[in-house]
Amino acid sequence: MELKLPLSLSKGTIRSLYKAGISIGFALLLTSILFLLTGANPFLAFYYIFAGAFGNISLAAETLVRTTPILLVSLGLAISFRCKVWNIGAEGQLYMGAMLGTITAVALGNTPLTLIISLFVSIVGGLLWASVPAFMRARLGINEVITTFLMNYVSIYLIQWLLAFPFRSPDTLFPESAQIPSSAVLPVLVPYTRLHLGVVIALFVALPLVHFLMMRTTFGYKLKAVGENPEAAKYGGINVGRTMLLALIISGALAGLAGFVEVSGIQFRMRPSLSPGYGYTGIVVALLGQNNPLGVALASIFLAAIFNGSTTMSRALNQPQGVVDFIQGVLVIFVLASEYILRYLEKKGVVKI
To answer: Which residues, including other chains, have CB under 8 Å from residue 353's CB and lie 6 or more apart?
Structure first.
């Protein structure tokens, strides 16, 4: 039997859709086997995950809230991954942006510009933290996978020290910052939920801007050219080092923004446990979305739904919430293997693109 998508889409887009479908399909299949081995009905498990993520307005709002930092981080990673610059340091960049944004908000106090300035500083914080490995990659040729990954630990442990000593909250005495002023808090959009303005920033500001940057500008063309063949791009007059540097620092800027959006929308103070691993989840999302902004947005909602829905599933079926980590892990495996699987299916005549 031959499968063919009856859509007027480009060949590359159709291949990306197939690969995403293969990745999700195999991940859910293996997860179903895991549920069966632990005595749970896979259909019930996935039903409870869906119900826990979208069962009512409040739950759907929580899923969008969870989507926000994941989407911002993964959009940045999609930019760097497009030109084969592997930023593994989004977690550290997120923390640095969140910390500097929080310090700025607390220092400024209640002013009309506190929120805007703090958001800007968080972007600069993530950008500057990413600029170190970016410079090392572009100018010195040092592998960015190693430097960005190791700088995660530098960022997180530095911030833990800052929160334990110079910036410890004077009112709670816990290792956390003082609460940000009310003028730095992102407004709630839907009463009796936590759906805040950061959702709009992610979905209706950052997403269209990144899509335009990657798909409609010369810089987006340079990203693709450098990613596919840096030598040919250099021969064609593209400054490969500068393109890589810009891709990595833009990635860091969006991660930094994600950090302070989480502070100003949900936490209201900087804590050592601010992120449950959004920087690493963003890697999975960017790969699953095939580094396409729209695909990344859908993948962000998908992973956020898995995160939130797993709590309901865990209570209903007495299953460990660690299934989320299992799904993320197998998604990475099958995202990396999806091209080979698709080629095999094409060779066998199952799929024709």
So the answer is: 4, 5, 11, 14, 15, 18, 346
Q: Which two tokens stand for residue 45?
A: 């498990």
Q: Output the furthest CA–CA distance in the chain (Å, rounded).
A: 68
State the pTM of this model: 0.93
CB 156 within 8 A of CB 259: no
Residue among 72, 12, 82 nearest 243 (CA): 82
Separation between Cα atoms, residue 238 and residue 23, nearest integer Å? 34
| Ordered DSSP codes for 89-135 | -HHHHHHHHHHHHHHHHHHH-S-TTHHHHHHHHHHHHHHHHHHHHHH
Say which amino acid occupies 37: L
**Using CB atoms within 10 A of its CB, is residue 8 exposed (0-12), middle (13-18) or buried (19+)?**
exposed
How does 243-278 read in b/e, with b if 16+ C-beta sit within 10 Å? bbbbbbbbbbbbbbbbbbbbbbbbbbbbbbebbeeb
Rounded Cα gap, residues 331 and 134, in angstroms: 27
pLDDT in tens, 32-46: 999 999 889 999 999
Phi/psi of residue 275, nearest 5 degrees? -110, 135
Q: Assign 3-class secondary structure to 287-351.
A: HHCCCCHHHHHHHHHHHHHHHHHHHHHHHHHCCCCCHHHHHHHHHHHHHHHHHHHHHHHHHCCCE
- Give the pLDDT mean for 301-325: 89
Classify residue 189 by burial, with Cβ atoms within 10 Å: 0-12, 13-18, 19+.
Answer: middle
CB 180 within 8 A of CB 106: yes
User: Where does 141-239 have alpha helices with state H?
Assistant: 144-164, 197-200, 207-215, 218-228, 230-235
How many degrees, rounded to 5, is the angle at CA 156 between CA 96 and CA 261?
40
pLDDT tens string 258-274: 999 999 999 999 999 99
Beta carbons of 15 and 353 less than 8 angstroms apart? yes
Percent with pLDDT over 70 in the chain: 97
Residue type at position 117: I
